[in-house]
Specification:
Number of helices: 9
Radius of gyration: 20 Å
Strand order of the largest sheet: 4-5-3-7-6
Oligomer: single chain
Helix content: 25-40%
Order of helices and strands: HEHHEEHEEEEEHHHHH
Length: 281
Amino acid sequence: MSETPYPLHTALSLAASGVPVLPLRRGKVPFGNCTACEDNACGGRPNMKTPGPCRCPGVCHAWAAATTDPAVIVSPSWAAVWRRAVCVGYHPGGAGLTVVDLDDADAIAWARTVLPATRTVPTTRGEHWIYRGAMTSRNKVRPGVDIKSTMAYARYLGPGTGRMVDLPDTVRALAAKTRSPARPLPHAGVPAVSGNGGCPHRMPVFLERGIAMAEQRITKARSGVHATVYGTFLAVLSTHGRCGCLTDAHIARLFNAAQTKGESPRHCNDAWTNARTRLGL
């Protein structure tokens, strides 16, 4: 599929139709945090479910930076970014949409037998099926299938074909019944509690310090972000993964730190899964 040579023009057109947009750099990932927002210096965590008070005029908070305001899109702080952008991303949930990302022929064949036909956009390897209605995003709900809606971004690849229909309960059910691949499970055969009958990692200070240090390691990375994220996930799991003391909130903090540095949700899940596999979790 050909990419428009004028991503800014595409972004303005989408924004005019109510679709929040953001520029994507090489690798189809968002731009990283600016200096003022690194290490949470801005006082907010715009990638979290509850955005903070950050008023950064730049485009450095991934999906949370997506906007429909043309004044922001063409502002000086975004201008240099657009010159380096290779394509346009958008926040489906912010537009009241859900994208079912089908990565291969098998996934497409499955969708055609299970999901109602809707607007379809060809991708490099598969198709995006776009439905009217927002929901929680979830990766790997089945082989080759991701759901992108709230707190996620998708690459804009054209208007597609077909009439868009309402989000079916079938898609919502996929996310509801799918356990997050990021949640660690206790390792069989390894004691989950200490000799005094309580998990030592549940001590607030110990666990909180470990998660905070992991977040800091990721946010301070200047290069090799992929390797840093994987290494950090591996370190956290090696210390806290076998007793099951990590919660979804802890894991979300690590993933959000990685995504703020430009990692995609898929890369985060892959890094987490690979770290667990290496440790036998």
